[in-house]
Every structure is written in C-alpha cells, then in structure tokens.
Write a structure and sequence with these properties.
About 25% of the residues lie in helices and about 20% in strands. It is of the alpha+beta class. Strands 1, 2, 3, 4, 5 and 8 form a six-stranded antiparallel sheet that branches. Strands 6-7 form a two-stranded antiparallel ribbon. A hairpin with a 3-residue loop joins strand 6 and strand 7. Helix 4 packs antiparallel against helix 5. The longest helix has 14 residues, at about 105-115. The chain is globular, with a radius of gyration of 16 Å.
Length: about 200
C-alpha cells in the first residue's frame, strides 16, 4: 500500500478522526482484550519518505494485537545534531495505537519494521530510511535502558509534540504534563506542517 499526494479537499480518513469513525474502529477491535494506548513517532529522511511512512503505518496495522487508531498530519523537519544541509530533511508523523502487546514486544515489532527498510544504526543522528520510536505506552514511566518510557527526549521535540497534539489535543506525556503545554515552550524552528501531504488511516 502506498501513499498518494493530494490537493484540494482533504481525505476524510486523515486525522483528526471524527467521533463516529473512532466508534466504528473501536467496534472492530474484537480481537483486542484490555488493550493499552501507545503513541509512536515515525521519521524518514532517505528514499521515498512519504511512501515509507505509509508503509510503516500499514505494517503496524498488520501486527497481531495492534490497531492503529489515529495517524497525524505530516511534518517536515530539519535534521537534529548535524551540520545544516548535510542531510535531507525528515518527514515525521505520530501514530496512536491500541495494543495488547507489552512494551518490549511492541519495541521488537518497531525494530523489525525499521529493519525491513534497511535501517542502519552505526551513526548517532545519522540519516535513516525509517525511524520508529515508542513515545508513550499507557501511563508507564520506566528507566529501563532498553526502552525508557516515556521517550526521554519527546518533551523537547516539536516534531513529536506538534503532530501528537494534532491528533489528540488533550494528550499528556507521562511525568511531563499536557502535550499542549510542552509544545508552547519548545521551538518550532525547522519544523513545518506539510499540508500538501497525507498519510492514510489503514482500512
């Protein structure tokens, strides 16, 4: 499944999702028992960035025990921690899930999706075909070095906070407070909403 560029009237499946659609998706969650809410951040700055992000959304939806509930608008972001112009810009988005997977299994799935797109981890702040980060899992706060929850730098990243706010204005980052308040105090320099690009919510 690939993403398409759209113009004019927006696709109604793009988030924020109307309450009626949310109810229908919830009603279809018959395979999920006592699911937890998780928030993931997606990023890509190599190859066909939009197509890669859409494929990651679809792969998450195809994961047993996972239902994609919301997909944010796309943002374009200048790379962090590198010389300006040394890397292509990123496309970023946030996905909200309901899942019966524990955090460790969700992390394994995130890594498997990254590896399917030949993600290389040999350089910090290096370019990447796909980055899938778990930002929050229910209200979990954990210092586990393999998976720190919530993500230890999410509160200072506009490319995470802005799309998350778009799909859930009432969201809170555990231990940090409302996403709206966090977004008010971070810089949005180099983070631009791409209203000409859209990701589809899986059917």
């Amino acid at each position: 499944m690939t993403a398409s560029l759209t113009g004019g009237q927006s696709d109604p499946t793009v988030q924020p999702v109307p309450a009626s659609v949310v109810e229908k998706v919830d009603a279809a969650d018959t395979t999920l028992h006592n699911p937890q809410r998780a928030v993931l951040s997606l990023g890509s700055n190599l190859g066909n960035r939009l197509e890669t992000l859409q494929a990651a959304v679809d792969a998450l939806e195809d994961t047993p025990g996972v239902r994609v509930k919301a997909v944010s608008p796309v943002y374009e972001t200048e790379p962090w921690g590198v010389e300006p112009g040394s890397q292509p810009s990123y496309f970023n988005a946030v996905v909200v899930l309901k899942t019966t997977l524990p955090p460790s299994s969700l992390l394994e799935r995130a890594h498997a999706i990254e590896e399917a797109f030949h993600r290389v981890r040999d350089e910090r702040w290096g370019p990447r075909t796909l980055d899938v980060d778990i930002i929050a899992y229910a209200g979990t706060v954990s210092d586990d070095p393999r998976l720190t929850l919530p993500h230890p730098r999410a509160h200072e990243r506009a490319f995470v906070l802005a799309p998350w706010y778009d799909v859930d204005p009432e969201a809170e980052l555990p231990g940090r407070g409302p996403v709206a308040d966090l977004l008010d105090i971070v810089t949005r320099d180099g983070v631009t909403a791409r209203e000409d690009l859209e990701l589809r919510l899986p059917e």
